[in-house]
Amino acid sequence: KDFTSGSEVRWCPGCGDYAILAAVQGFMPELGIKRENVVCVSGIGCSSRFPYYLDTYGLHSIHGRAPAIATGLVTARPDLNVWVITGDGDALSIGGNHLIHALRRNVNLTILLFNNRIYGLTKGQYSPTSEPGKITKSTPVGSVDTPFNPVSLALGAEATFVARTLDSDRKHLTSVLKQAVEHRGSALVEIYQNCPIFNDGAFDVLKDRDEAQARLIRLEHGEPITFGVDGTKGVVRAADGTFEVADVATVGLENVVVHDAENPNPATQFALSRLDDPT
Ligand code: SF4
């Protein structure tokens, strides 16, 4: 039996959340974890309805506080497999403080951060990951804020597993999520998630096959990092701590997935700088 619950799914047609749910429901039986030993704790937002749709224990909790509640749970019951399901507004605005402390404490949590770069549930306000100049109901002349980069934030908090993947890339999404669940310690997986109602096409450039081939680099632990050449400079910090300047066919961290599932020592993680700040 898979992990599908009987609850009616209430996301808008075409929402990227469906793809993430399908991926999770698909691989959970392969992990060999009993459903009664899994707990999904969510905050508030569209993504936070996720626990209703998995046949596990779940808690639809308080806005931004899911990492704190999950920390308490896994501290009391370390035998459980505890997930945090959150979004860019929930995790990085009201819940930013809880998130960074869960990461720096290396609490044994799998954190899925659905990033659609918008507040969907409240109908389209700019979020902490919206791009500068974003015009929304709450920023009618364009956002003046610099967005958070969740991967940079997690690396800065010395999380021991950091990854980014894409809702429509089922193969990579599944691979990354499985490794995150198997990691002991804090694992943060940012998932680019399309919101077709309020921010449609935010990640379309990554879904175009030719563009993706040219600009997207998939990193998996243990694989050599190779970059295409388009003249763009970037800096890579290798596992031994050295820095190299590379020509990279990407636009920076926006398109790079970073994770190191087998080596939990933050000092040996791969990190990539922003390309516009190669020092
Ligand atoms: Fe998905 Fe956007 Fe609808 Fe929320 S508002 S369910 S993120 S499509």
From TrEMBL:
<protein>
    <submittedName>
        <fullName>2-oxoglutarate ferredoxin oxidoreductase subunit beta</fullName>
        <ecNumber>1.2.7.11</ecNumber>
        <ecNumber>1.2.7.3</ecNumber>
    </submittedName>
</protein>
<keyword id="KW-0560">Oxidoreductase</keyword>
<feature type="domain" description="Thiamine pyrophosphate enzyme TPP-binding">
    <location>
        <begin position="44"/>
        <end position="191"/>
    </location>
</feature>
<dbReference type="GO" id="GO:0047553">
    <property type="term" value="F:2-oxoglutarate synthase activity"/>
</dbReference>
